[in-house]
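Onboarding guide, step 5: your first structure request.
Type a short instruction followed by the sequence, for example:

Predict the 3D structure of this protein.
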Amino acid sequence: MTGGAPPRLVLFDFDDVLASYSHQARIAHLAGCCGVSGERVSAVLFESGLEDEYDAGLIDTATYLARLGDGLGAPVDETRWIASRLAGSRVDPAVLALARSVAAQARVGVLTNNGALLAVACRTLLAPLFPALEGAVLCSGALRMRKPDAAIFHHALRHFGVPPEHALFLDDKPANVAGARAVGLRAECVADAAGLGDALRRHGFALQPDPGERAAGAGIG
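The system replies with structure tokens like these:
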């Protein structure tokens, strides 16, 4: 369903939609903070399944950080973890501008398969989108459900009080997009700022051209 009035709610995935994610940059930052090798961080955080447990909501934040610190032999508090997450994430100003434009026309939210601490990190990474995102960053670890399961989309719709046909979901993974569509949401797979802008325009949002487009247009006539 495209064209016509824009949806009342736009749900963005976080990693590789609102922010590009570098696994290696995050690992390197945490390794440097804790004085260990990147291989050890990878083994403790990812290969052990610790990150998956946290993202699924099987353990709480205190347990997650304690096990991470024990495994690395150095304390890892929320501040250190968030710093490493920020080091691994980069927000494209063009994407941020698109999201801000959408926030002026509809409700916006984030629906991500990440642990609860990402919602705190978003206050820094996506600072220009607050207060529009206040209470609107939904993390799988806090909800104990994950995309592409139908339950997480139903929860998001109840949270925002919007029926599925009036919500647009944007993700970089086809399986998650298919899951949203199965529940009745409009959904698009996007990979970069250009694709995001195209998808938003198809669904009725009025978006300003970016500076590069304006500069190109100025030479035509």
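Each response can be followed by summary notes, for example: The chain has two domains: 9-20+91-213, 23-87.
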